[in-house]
TrEMBL record:
Database matches in InterPro entries: PI-PLC_domain (IPR051057), PLC-like_Pdiesterase_TIM-brl (IPR017946)
One Pfam family this sequence matches: PI-PLC_cat
Lineage: Eukaryota, Viridiplantae, Streptophyta, Embryophyta, Tracheophyta
Protein name: PI-PLC X domain-containing protein At5g67130-like
Superkingdom to which the source organism belongs: Eukaryota
Length: 138
């Protein structure tokens, strides 16, 4: 995708939109993901979202890690989007059959400490591109 400068993929969780709007229905062939909301931010736990195939299902090419509370509280997000996010990505790596997330969903992505969401994405890109802990090491 990068080589072809095709950098946007759109998925829907509403099956009807695949036929009416041509948007790929994420559960058919594409995505596994962990639970979103309060149940998805429990430390050391990466539970499966109900609609998703099981996280270790390698017939689905993409892994999505959700990491946001049910009710977004901006003032608490700094903690959520910092070390907790990196820890969740590592936990979900194991739960997804040793597969790194291809993308991450968070609230208030600019709010964090210690690098936050940007550090987490740098880690994922490093792991996915060259097996290193940070994309800048590739």
């Amino acid at each position: 995708m990068v080589a072809n400068n095709q950098l946007l993929i759109v998925f829907t969780s509403a099956e009807s939109k695949q036929n009416t709007e041509g948007i790929a229905y994420q559960w058919n062939y594409y995505v596994v993901e962990n639970q979103y909301g309060d149940d998805g931010v429990k430390p050391d736990t990466c539970s499966n979202r109900g609609e998703s195939a099981p996280l270790p299902n390698k017939n689905k090419a993409l892994v999505l890690v959700n990491h946001f509370k049910t009710v977004p509280v901006k003032i608490l997000t700094c903690e959520d989007n910092s070390e907790q996010l990196v820890d969740m990505i590592k936990t979900c790596y194991l739960a997804a059959g040793n597969r790194w997330a291809n993308y991450v969903a968070v609230n208030f992505y600019k709010r964090s400490s210690g690098g936050g969401t940007f550090r987490a994405v740098d880690k994922l890109n490093g792991e996915l591109l060259c097996g290193r802990d940070d994309v800048h090491a590739c």
